[in-house]
Structure formats: C-alpha cells, structure tokens
Amino acid sequence: MSAGTAIPDAQEKDTALNPGHGARRRVPDGVSSLLKRDVFGVRLGVLLLIFPVILAGLGMQITSRQYWNHPPDSRYYLTMMARDMGYSWGQAVHAELRVAPANHLSPWYFADNDPTWQMVRVRVLYPVLSLPFIWLWGLSGGSLAVPVLGTVLFIWAIARVLQRLYGPAIAVIVAGGFSLTTPVNVFTWAGTDTLAMGLAGVIVLNLPIERRIGKANLVWLGAASVFIAMTRQVGVLAPAMAGAGWLWLLVRERNWRNRWLGSLVVTAATTFVIQALAMTLANANTAGVIGHGQTGYWGILRQFVHYMKVVTEQATTFMWHNDRMLYALLIAAGISVLARFGSDATAVFVGAVASTYVLTASVGFSSLMRYEMVMFPAAAVAAGQLVQLALGDHLRHPAGDPEVLEPAPTRLRGWFSDRRAAAALTKPGRLLGLDLPSRDRWKPQLVLNSLALAAVMGVALHGSWSSAAPAPTSPSYAAAQGGSGYAVTPLATQSAEQTLKIFFHQAIGLAHDSTDLQDSLDWTHAMRYRPTASDQPGWATRDKDGTAVINPNAISAGRDLMEAYGRGLSLDSTVKPDTVKILSRQVSEYGEDVTFTVQDSSGATHQGTATTLYPIWNKKDGSTVTSMVFDS
Q1: pTM (two decimals)
Q2: How far apart are CA 443 and CA 588, in angstroms?
Q3: pLDDT band at residue 233 under the 50/70/90 scheme
Q4: Do the Cβ atoms of 491 and 593 come closer than 8 Å?
Q5: Which of 115, 143, 259, 448 lies 20 to 30 Å (CA to CA) from residue 506?
C-alpha cells in the first residue's frame, strides 16, 4: 500500500482478498521450471512428450507379436548368448530351439568354414550386453532388453542434438516423428538393428556439427566406432559422415586443418583398425560382395549402380505403402540438402546416405528399411534443418558460433556433483581430469570405454566368438560333424534315391526363377558340385578336379546367381529326376554316400556321386544334399 493513502494497490488488494492466488500462480511456474530442466542433456518436457508414445508402442509390439520377437536371424544371437553363459554348442543350440522352435538350426550353422557365421561372429556386443537381462528374465525375455534400449538411445541422442541445434520444439517434432516410424518400433526384436541405430546416434551426437568439440567427444566417437563395428558391418558410416563434414568445410574455408579434422582422424583410424582385426581374425571371404561376382572396375560400377536403383525402388515402395511418416521425414531431409547445401547437417546426411548405399547395394536388396536404419540419426538432423527453415523465427534456436565451445547447461548442485567436486581436488581426480570442463574431461571416458571393451571381449572370447568344427561336404559322417560331441541325431531316414529325385526337381526350379534354397538343399551347409559355365557360382574357385564348394547363403541375394546355380545342378534343366538309380551306397548314422546315374532329356546317362544327410528338424522332412558331383 502506498504511503499516505487509504486505498490499496490492485496487486495488494488481489492478494489480500485471495491469499492462495499467489501460491496458485507459483505452481505453474514451478512446473515450467521443472520441465525446462535438462535430463542427460535433453529437456524433461521434451522427453515427456516423446517417450510415453514410443514406450507404449514398444510394449505393444513385444507383447503381441509372439514368434516375431525372435525372427530367423535371432537364431545366431540367441545361441551366442547361451555360449556366453557357458553352454556347450549342443546345449546352446537346444536353448535357442526352445525359445524359437520354428527356426532351423544346427551346430554346422556355426562351423568354422561357414561364411555367414564368420560375418555374424564379430557381432559380439549385443549378446554380451544381454547377459544381465537374461539372468533376470531368461533367454526369451532378456534377449529383447538391449534392442529396446537401443531404440531409447537413438531417440535420446537425436533429441539432444536437435535441441542443441534447433531448440526443444523442433526436437519434439522430429524426434517424435521418428518415434512413430515402423522400423524404429517393429525392429525391437532379438537382433542388432536398433542397437546399431542407437550407436549411430551417439556418433552423430558427438560430431562437430556447427560447433567445435573437445577431447571427450573424440573419445566417444572412437568408442562408438568400435562398438558399432562389433554390432553390424556398418563401419564405413562414421568416417563417411566425418569425412563429408571435413570436405564441406574444406571447400568453404580452404583450411584442411578445420574443426572436423579430429573427428575424421579418430573415426577413420578406429574403423580401419577394427576392420583389419575382424578380417584377420574372422575367416570371412567377402571378395566380390559389392560387385556381385564382377571383377572389372566397369563391371563392379555397373552392378553397384544397378543395385542402388533396386534398393531405392524397394525402399520407396515400402515407405509409400507402409510408412508415410518415415517417407516424409526422409523427403524433408533430402529437401534440406538442396535448401542448405553448405551446412554441416547436409554434409553429415550426404555421408550417411553414401555409406548406407554401400551397405544396401552390397546386400542387393532393401529389407523393410532395416539396413537403412543406421542413417536415421543423420536424417533427423537434416530434417530438423528444414523444419527450422520452414517455421522461421518462431522456433528458431541458433547453434551459435561454431568456433566457440558451447557452455555447459546450468544444473542445480546435488549430492553427486558435490562428491565429484570433492574428488576433483584429489590427486587421482586431477589425474583423471575431473577438475577440467566436461568436454576436456576425456580420461574418465577413455577408462570407462576401455573397461567396457575389455569386459565384452573377455566374455566373448571364451564364449560366442569360438566356432564349431568345420562341416565338409562329404562323407556324411563328417558333413554332419560326427564325432564332435554335438552332432544332431537324425529324426528319420530317407533313401538317397528319393532325396536325389526331390533335389533335381528343386534344381530345375532354381534354374527357372525359383528362390528356394532349402528343402533338399540347405541354406547354410557347404555344397560341392561341378559348375559347367563361367556364370555359375564357384567357377573362379574350382579345385583341380573341376569341382567347387559354395555356400548357398552366399548367393541368396542374387537371382541371376541362383538361376545359374540351378542350371549347373540340373545340366541346364535337362536332367530327368525320375530316372535316378543308385549303383553303390555307404550308410552312416547321419546319412548316405552314393554313386548314382541319371538320364537327361536326350536319353544320355550321366554318372556321379552324392552325399545326403538325414532330416534333423522334423521327421517329415526330407534329407539334405551336401555334395552332388557329376563325373567329368
């Protein structure tokens, strides 16, 4: 109340008549202040707008899809988890089949001479990280925890970088949009897809996008580059994004020692070392993957461009029919490239797209956007750039001067921060750099990630990294890994005559556009045959006797290769399956080794040898052919 007057001020009068009004006004202010608090670098309000939706979607997926919680690819990972828990090969295979009995699985899937296993065995991070959850919830439920956490990591990482670059509103729009896409929700199954996507998000989060970064960011870049290489074969992703950023800034500033150089050196060096080790330690033959059998430079380029078109058409068709939200986000990212071509966000997105095309074109197809998920973090940054440009100053949040380290967000001091401040004053604390700003505090991060890497490798080297005994193509006892202690006992027997008749019918089907590499063939087991033309698999790697050993799973991505394979097995589709006759037979407990004859459509008789393995998954199945060689 003013001095010398009997009339109260309006504010004082309101307070006097409504003593609780000020308290009611302070409650929304308190809530607003709370929602603006950062939780691991992201505003609490942003997290509350995004995570209830994504967590509800993930919960619905996991509780309703049943079998597809453990798809066919999970047979490798579940067995690796069991091996890391100390199970033998036989016990590990049985443990996986109890969870997913519909999956075909045998110890020869993990044979030292199987190329698919040699590719998968380096993915040791997911199985080891799953162990604590398996101890809590068993193999079935525990194997789903890390995929869910991978999705959470992805959403958090893109929300944080979007908030830094464009503000909390755009973080909600873009990160919320990605949380509604099909791949982010559906592929939280027992696989490595979401974990790789989350680690890609960590890489994008620590790149020098519109800023300078500190030593701690470089440590996280190196660690994420290592761990993503131990999750999926996408190691080129990190150096591609960092390299594109460095090149963009080199063109703009004419300075090769720009703020992107450190991230490029760290990601390139780390990726090179980890890939060299993987190629040395894992007996994987990936020669000709990108070229799909082509050897000349022009042929490789032509095949690469062809499969780029194939995967682009497949991806866009899938998104148009099944995921319009993802389609809109990726289109927005593409438009932002044209609208702001010189920005860091554009460079990162272009690098991510280029590396993703290397991956998908090498595979030869797009699998419901699974292989493209590693570029989603970069796409989120580019899409956010367009949203900011479209909405203008209303939601504008400039990133600031990239040459100045961004200040750390203000946080209220608590028990943990007080203890850390006290530890920073000690000699060990100063040694670890706890007294330094967070971006220069790299030693604790290095120690933490080194210990994590040592723990993962220590567990894996004594478990999932090892291989089962080689599975040769013949004789049947060795082909079934007999004498190893974990060979699977057959459930039934089938005569070689019947098996070869089915086999030749299937070979003729392959030669005429069928894609069936199961039944009398096995998708995984090595197969010996005699190629008769240069376009047939194994022609360039024939032994002195003219035969070749191939793995059907190595040719499953190429329809032309499968057709050529079928022609080689069926004498150019001229063989008459019903004319098979057995001349001699040796029987083991696992199958038969026979000499046979069969006629072609001209009436000529051809002689050969074959090895068959009795069925091991279902007594109603037929036998499997692991060797079928016509005499020269």
Answers
A1: 0.85
A2: 60
A3: confident
A4: no
A5: 115
